[in-house]
Structures are given as C-alpha cells and as structure tokens.
Amino acid sequence: MKVSVVQVDASLARPENRFNLLEVKVRQAAIEDVDLIAFPELFLSGYNVGEALHLHAEAQDGPFAQRVGTLAKDLGIAIAYGYPERDGETVYNAFIFIDEQGRTLVNHRKTVLPLGIEHDWFATGSNVPVFRFKDATIALLICYECEFPEIVRHVAQQGADIVLVATAGGADWRQVPTSVIPSRAYENGIFIAYANYCGVENGHGFCGLSCVVNPYGVDLARAGKTEDVISTNLDLGFVAEAREKVPFLRDQRRVVSRLARMART
Asked: Are 58 and 65 in contact (CB under 8 A)?
C-alpha cells in the first residue's frame, strides 16, 4: 500500500483555499499511484482559529466532505483529513476517512482533549475505530491520543496494522514526532503515518516533522519544518515479522497478569 502524508503550512486560511490545496495534492498523489493520502488535524478550518472552529463546523456528510468524496471517487484514491464536526448543537474534533469509491468508511471523534483551547470548543468522542481498507486494518487517532501508550496498544490489540494520526503538533513538542511516534510503532509492531502542520497560525507555531514510521520504529519518510508531501510504500508483511521478533503484544497479557498478582500480595 502506498501512503502519502501532507504537511500543511498552517497560515493557509479559509476552507475554500484548503480544499484547493487538498485537490492539488490528491491529484498529484493519484498520478503517483498512491492508495491513501492523509491531512492534518482540523484541516478544513485550521487549528488556532477561535470561533471559526464552530463557524466552519459541518456534518460528516457536509459540503466539504461531499466534494472530497467526489474527488476520491473520480481519482480512485482514499483521503483522510481532520475537521470540526457538527452534530446538532455539539461540535467534535473529528478525523474522517473517505475511501477510493467516495464512501465515508469511518468518522473518528477525538476522545481525549489536551490542555488549551480545545476544551473551549469541542465535546469528546467515546470510541476509537478500527476498520479494513484494502488489505490493511487501520485505526484513526487525533494528536494527543497517540501519546497514550494505552490507546495505541488498544488499537494494535484490535488488529491495526496502520495507525493514521492527524495532528496539530506545536513548535514546543517536537519530541512527539521524533521520539514518541517511533516508540509507539516499535512497542506495538505497527506502521504510523503522522500528518502535522508547519509554520505559524495566528501566533501559534507548529513543529512540522510529519512522518511515516515502520513497525521497528524506523523512519520510512520524514518531513522537515516546511510544507511538504512525503510518500512511501508500506509492506504489511513487516507487521507480522516485527511482532514475531519483538513479541510485546503476545507477552503483554502475561506481564499484566504477573503485575496484578504482585499487586495483590
């Protein structure tokens, strides 16, 4: 499976401009026979945009998603992007996956909100989806969620081969893409594709460093600190190989059981 991750300059304003960028990147990816392309957290609206998070919020079948679905079907490529999802009076920080036939396979609502602006604008979701796409089992996570080993371990135990992360990683948090993401991949024998912003948006800086990491925790592709598109082929056979060589998932149950016995004594 060939995957692309788009690192977006956060200063790009307005949904129409962002759709135009998305279309350009998707059309180029289709020429390069990419199967799946991912964009950052709250891509539709921007992240540090205050009331615009609600102004531009839309249902998961809203106008932006319909246009993306048409593009995905026309070009035969799956597209995943972050957006503010409106469900009645409630707004969520969401990550949607639209397949190559233009169908919404999964819509994930962020389950853990970090300190900062998100608590002012969003409700929290209640589950983490795992689903099939082509020959892979995929999970969607949003930013802070991937920093919890428990969440990534949970989706790995549910069979995930690939974890897509839409993020808005700040300039002060470069240790997440450089240290945490490779560790999560290694701990669970999974591929992780991490799509971040770069640049500055309304005074808030982003660290860039979007990446695709293999099940040994090794970079397959990594962006720098400017706008970029990174692409790589994922050999799903490496998941089984890594889990055989480093059997954390197999041994985890035994470790947890021993710790529980120790706690009772």
From this structure: yes
- What is residue 211's three-state secondary structure? strand
Q: 138, 143, 146: which is closest to 197 by C-alpha?
A: 143
Positive or negative: CA dihedral 127, 45, 60, 100: negative
| Catalytic status, residue 2 | no
Residues in CB range of 39: below 8 A, 6 or more apart: 6, 8, 22, 25, 79, 80, 81, 82, 166, 195
pLDDT band at 252 (very low <50, low <70, confident <90, very high): confident
What are the structure tokens assigned to 147, written together?
């920093």
The pTM assigned to this predicted structure is 0.96
Residue 110 is among the residues annotated as catalytic for this protein: yes
List the catalytic residue out of 25, 100, 110, 198. Answer: 110
How far apart are alpha carbons 151 and 26 in whole angstroms? 29
Active-site option among 41, 85, 118, 145: 41
Is the CB of residue 193 less than 8 Å from the CB of residue 164?
Answer: yes
Annotated catalytic residue: which of 58, 143, 145, 187? Answer: 143
With beta carbons less than 8 A apart as the criterion, state whether 40 and 264 touch: no
Secondary structure class of 214 (helix, strand, coil):
coil
